[in-house]
Amino acid sequence: MIYSAIFLAAFALATIETLPDPLLVGGTESRWGSFPSAAFIRTPTSSYCGAALIHPEFVLTIAQCVIDSSSLHPPAHNCGRNNYPSQLHLVNVNNDIALLRVDRRFTLPSNTIELAVRRKRIVPDEAECLLPGWGIQRATTAGFIESRQKYLTVDILNRDKCNEPHIHQGHVRESMLCGGNLFQSSNAACSGNLGSPLYCDGQLAGLLSFGTNCGLADDPPVFSQVRYFNRWIDGEILKRVVN
């Protein structure tokens, strides 16, 4: 079984907010309502991380955003406002994905948010996908934060290409997607974009896990592939939600 460890913590682990730290360089300004399921969480282990709303009570992000991977201990209590994830259901850190349950159910339908449709089919090589985030003028944490959401176009790359010795050296597994810039680029994700959702054909296909290169060559973004975890996600939600 690929899910070798599930941790449950009854803490207010994170706060869903609307304006994160710098996330990407370049990009194209999003139209209003283009990514209504995209969310961001603030955690003790990372200033901000991306996430996706997949259920009125649950958001999906990556494990490294909400847990100390060196000790596998849940992070300390974090105060904030808005909706608070109150439980953490975690696949082991080798499968970089986490399911957070908020303490206040989102009211749907809404004219500003909606649930992500999780992808069930394989994303083919060369597919054109979209990665939303907020930008900076240059690839430094001191850069000016854009107030409007932007997105990057991400072309899916062949996994063998991404695993070449001078790129990701065999670390891109079957449960991952690799895409984006192989060469130096002025349009790329930065480290603040971890956990951000990748949409392919309008469906939630991945969550940014590593390769946040801010435009450097030979370090394309790699995503936890959501379809690989759909059975686990459905099972965990079913255990904890009556209807």
From TrEMBL:
This is AAEL015103-PA. Its main location: secreted. Keywords: Hydrolase, Protease, Secreted, Serine protease, Signal. It is found in: Secreted. GO terms for molecular function: serine-type endopeptidase activity. GO terms for biological process: proteolysis. The keyword Nucleus does not apply. PROSITE patterns: TRYPSIN_DOM (PS50240). One of its GO terms (cellular component) is extracellular space. Belongs to the peptidase S1 family. CLIP subfamily. Residues 1-20 form the signal peptide. It comes from Aedes aegypti (Yellowfever mosquito). The keyword Signal applies. SUPFAM superfamilies: Trypsin-like serine proteases. Residues 24-238 form the Peptidase S1 domain. InterPro entries: Peptidase_S1_PA, Peptidase_S1_PA_chymotrypsin, Peptidase_S1A, Serine_Proteases_S1, Trypsin_dom. PANTHER family: SRCR DOMAIN-CONTAINING PROTEIN, TRYPSIN-RELATED.
